[in-house]
Amino acid sequence: MTTIKQALQQASNDIDRFEAKLLLAHCLGVNRTYLITHDRDELPPSVLQQYDRCVTQRVAGMPVPYICGTQEFYGRPFKVTPDVLIPRPDTETLVDFVLQATSDKRPHSLLDLGTGSGCIAITLALENPLLSVSATDLSARALTVARENARTLHANVQFYEGNWFDALLSESHFDVIVSNPPYIHKEDQHLKNLKYEPIGALTDGSDGLSHIATIIKNAPRHLNRHGLLAFEHGWDQAMAVQDLFAQTQLWQDISTIKDLAGNDRVTVARLA
Ligand code: GLN
Question: Is the distance from CB of 149 to CB of 118 less than 8 angstroms?
Fold first, then answer.
């Protein structure tokens, strides 16, 4: 028989100990504190089998959130599948910016382009109930995940399928538009570590800036006067994104915000 403690010890030869705990807690349907307080408990054979399978998947490189089917974002559990990007803590920078920008106790309409798991749109809808939130994605499979997350977390978000603004009616207008688009450069070495995630959610297959340029070009037709457009982007892309905004006279108050690690992460501008 194998105890919780032994199972964690055995796995720690092959995978990170913290990740082993996440996987075992997932298989037992308990939280991580339980593992500590019950470390002498013996594991039922079926749980042990499932846990061994999870460890094997992790050793092969599959990210823990895909194995467990869930990832926490802004304190809430989001369902994730390989059809959606795994929510990153960095993206909370974009959420915090929008919450602050819309904290005037008035209603605002908001659009999230390329919503994936729905983590940005759903978090904003829940954190500020005065926002009326819409979200798009090119991927019908991603939208299925996003809709399920909205249902489970009781968030009111309207979802639309299509390529950026093509998903919407031409007369749709918003006060705030946000996006965490695929911005990684196709040659970025970091991409090699992300091979389980949907490639189309990570890179544009070019310099990482093409989707941001497309959105900046088309956003004025869907933003209300003085509306905000905010992007998440790579740590080294702030100047390039600022330049894209500055190519026309349409944008003002162009600025960049750093994430908790001190990297440039979000660039925002206001429609003049
Ligand atoms: N920030 C993510 C990463 O570098 C990528 C997110 C994205 O491309 N939108 O892992």
Answer: yes
